[in-house]
Design goal:
Length: about 170
């Protein structure tokens, strides 16, 4: 069955690219804020141009629309659905929370996101795929519970959950 063979590498998911971008941005912002010696022309440029606020919001809205479609299609596995919501919370909502008071510059920030998206597409091209193929695979992988994060959590739930007879986490 072809569904069993579908897998997706974390490096091919743009959400993880945006999450890494947000983490890097927050680290640079924190370093410049707390350690003035870290101020440089690059850090100043990056803090002005590279705020991922708008990219995170677009990704969050897309994920919410996907969740609505998923519920509407009645293809709902409660565990997978819950884990997907946790993923959205971790890689989109938490960074948005930390970026809420950071200055934003709409045009430069959106241009930076578009440049990153172009680089992402070049990366996919080099890997012999494209954004549409990745999106189709991602939908199937998420619904099967085989996305990188969901598969990791399910593996650890099976590893640590099966030997626990009394249910209190002490084995």
């Amino acid at each position: 069955m072809q569904e069993e063979k579908i897998s997706i590498a974390p490096s091919t998911l743009f959400s993880y690219w945006v999450f890494a971008w947000a983490l890097f941005y927050l680290v640079v912002h924190g370093m410049v804020s707390h350690f003035p010696k870290w101020k440089s022309s690059f850090s100043q440029w990056f803090l002005r141009m590279g705020n991922p606020w708008y990219a995170l919001w677009i990704a969050l809205i897309q994920n919410i629309l996907f969740l609505i479609w998923w519920v509407y299609q009645r293809r709902l596995d409660v565990l997978i659905f819950s884990l997907f919501i946790i993923i959205i919370f971790i890689i989109k909502v938490i960074p948005l929370f930390y970026l809420r008071n950071v200055p934003r510059h709409p045009i430069p920030n959106v241009i930076f996101a578009l440049v990153l998206f172009a680089i992402y597409n070049l990366y996919l091209f080099a890997k012999g795929t494209n954004v549409w193929e990745i999106y189709e695979n991602a939908v199937a992988v998420i619904q099967q519970g085989k996305s990188p994060f969901i598969a990791y959590v399910k593996t650890h739930m099976n590893t640590y959950g099966n030997g626990n007879e009394n249910g209190n986490g002490n084995g």
